[in-house]
Here is the input.
Amino acid sequence: MADPYFFGYGSLVNLATHDFPDPHPARLKGWRRVWRHTDLRPVAFLTAVPDPASEIDGMIAHVPKNDWAALDEREWAYDRVPATQAIAHPLTHAVEIAVYAVPQDRQNDPSNRHPLLLSYIDVVVQGYLRAFGEDGADRFFATTDGWDAPILNDRAEPRYPRHQQLKPFEADFVDDRLRRLSTAIVQSA
Here is the structure.
């Protein structure tokens, strides 16, 4: 029987945000990330969408206690999609890997009412810097769509529940890459 694993492509890449067992860098082929809002959450967040010309770095981890139902509950705004054949990883034993993605019919563009959170972006980029280095973090920005959405600067009072303190060079890296993308940063009220 194959061990159950899942592929994380956002905050789950940051190992400081969770304690999922047996994490390993991996790559998902045929998908790309996009910022989306749904009626399920008040702010925009990352999802993965099929894209045959793209591949994204991420992290696989073992499903705790082999309990998909518990993980599905944690990832309640997403559907679990089988992805074993699309993922390159270092494991040598049989695994079953899924990726979580927002259903297409629930996806909307972010807006001023439903912005991206800078504290969320910070967590994701910190994870990519630590797992994949600066080149990997740059690939994160390049393989993610939706940077034209408004970004709420909530660093002083983070709204993202798993926010992390950034080192100065990490914050500078995020700020520099967002400037290069000409993103619209709005101040927290």
Remarks:
- The helical segments are 68-74, 118-142, 168-180.
- The mean pLDDT is 93.
- The CA atoms of residues 153 and 188 lie 6 Å apart.
